[in-house]
Amino acid sequence: MSNYPELPWIAEARKHIGLKEDTSKFKHSPTILSWLKKLGAWWMDDETPWCGTFVAIALKRGSRAISKSFAWAKSYLNYGTKLTKPCYGCIGVMGRAGGGGHVTFIVGKTRDGSLVCLGGNQGNQVCLAKYPVSRFLGFVFPEKSDGTKSSPADYRYDLPIYNGNLTTVTSEA
Fold first, then answer.
1. Cα separation, 132 vs 54, whole angstroms
2. What is the pTM of this model?
3. Average predicted confidence (pLDDT) for the chain
C-alpha cells in the first residue's frame, strides 16, 4: 500500500472484507439488510444483486454522494467525474454477458495488468478480486456529499501493485 492517506470510502469498504451473504433460501445477512434499510431500498434480501448497495453504503459512510439509482450498477456511469483511466479509490463499472452490470472500487493492479477491485457481491461476499481491464465500461470518481464533482489527486493514478491473495470470482450476481 502507498504512504498516502486512505480515502474514507475505501477505509469503510475495507472494514467489510469477508462479509458473506446468507445463501440459504429464507435467511439474509443482517448487515446487508441494515444497509438496504439505511439506503431506503425497496427490497429487503441479499439474493438481489447488492454490489451497488455495497458501493453506496461505503460512499455514504465515507461522506460522499451516492448514485440516485444505486441499486443498478450501470447507473454509476452517469454519476461522479468520468475518468479516462482508473485511479485508486474510483468506481469501476463493468458489463456482464447477458446484460446487467457490476460496480466495484479500484484499489490496485496486478503485475499482469488486471485491476484489483474491492467490492460487494463478488462471489457472494465482500472481497478483493482481480478483473481484466477489458471488462470495464467506465471509471468514475465519487461526488462530494453535496453532489459537487470531485477529481482525484494525480498520485492516485499510480495504482499500487498487489501481490496478496485475491479471490477468483466466477459470479457477480
1. 21
2. 0.93
3. 92
